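Subject: Interface between my chains keeps coming out wrong

I've been trying for a while to get a sensible model of this assembly. When I model each chain on its own everything looks fine, but I need the whole thing in one frame so I can look at the contacts. Pasting all components below, labels as-is. Any help appreciated, I'm running out of ideas.
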Amino acid sequence: MPLRPQNARPQDARPQTSHPHTAHPQASLPTLSTDTAVRLVQVTKTYPDGPDVVTALRSVSLAIPRGSFTAIMGPSGSGKSTFLSCAAGLDSPTSGQVIVGDVDITALSPDAVTRFRRDHIGFVFQAYNLVGHLTVAENIQLPMLLGGTRPDPGWQASLVDAVGLTGMEDHLPGELSGGQAQRVAIARALVTRPAVVFADEPTGALDTRTGQQVLGLLRRMSDELDQTLVVVTHDPGVAATADQVLFLADGSVVGDLVSPTAADVSARLAELGR
Ligand SMILES: Nc1ncnc2c1ncn2[C@@H]1O[C@H](COP(=O)(O)OP(=O)(O)OP(=O)(O)O)[C@@H](O)[C@H]1O
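Reply #2:
Try treating it as a single job with all components included. I did that and got this:
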């Protein structure tokens, strides 16, 4: 069964540039087009801190190309979680715009953002976040069930097959290993064929070998489905699997690496005072 959905763009239709997956931190932004999956325009996020404010993101502008696998890294407190929350519509920026596909989600009402997230954004969390009383199949279908639809049975079967869980559709989350649970979460994140999948430390709760398998699966989903993937991670090995890494420090994008090794990533983090 083909994994690539019918409406996916063939690989060879991608525009040919020297770095087709390179994000553009802070630099002059490319014109918005369908080849940009997520775009942040001067996004600032502040939090109240007693009489003061903490600035978690400082006028961040970047464009994440469609089909790319991007890792977000930076020292503790640099703004990675805040970036993820704002880019994924889980929280609203204090100022600036977040555009997913061609929709400015910062201009939507809270209800509309919730619907948009459900239909167009996938999430993978460190702690899997499966619903304990629903089966594997039901957990995977959940984003569509919440929207009043069901996945096409062929698409559901190919996803279950792709994450290696064929035959386990009727199991409950409590019967799964950590790696299996995360693979269910990945299938669930992909089921709506979202514009982008955000993952927050997706291998953080797994042992090294299982983490590698899950990482390999994410890489394969990016390649085979042309799925845009944005992963926040502390792990240079995870970042080295990505097409590019964006580094945050003190709420700003301070650099990027394209197709880096884990050693390149570690060296850059050391410079930033990880
Ligand atoms: N809800 C909040 N209220 C107040 N300050 C916050 C809140 N969330 C984050 N911050 C502050 O914003 C800054 C960025 O935090 P954020 O959690 O985004 O960083 P991070 O890079 O994800 O850190 P870590 O790697 O430790 O998870 C920090 O100074 C943090 O203390």
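Reply #3:
Confirming on my end. Confidence is low (pLDDT under 50) at residues 5-22, 24-32.
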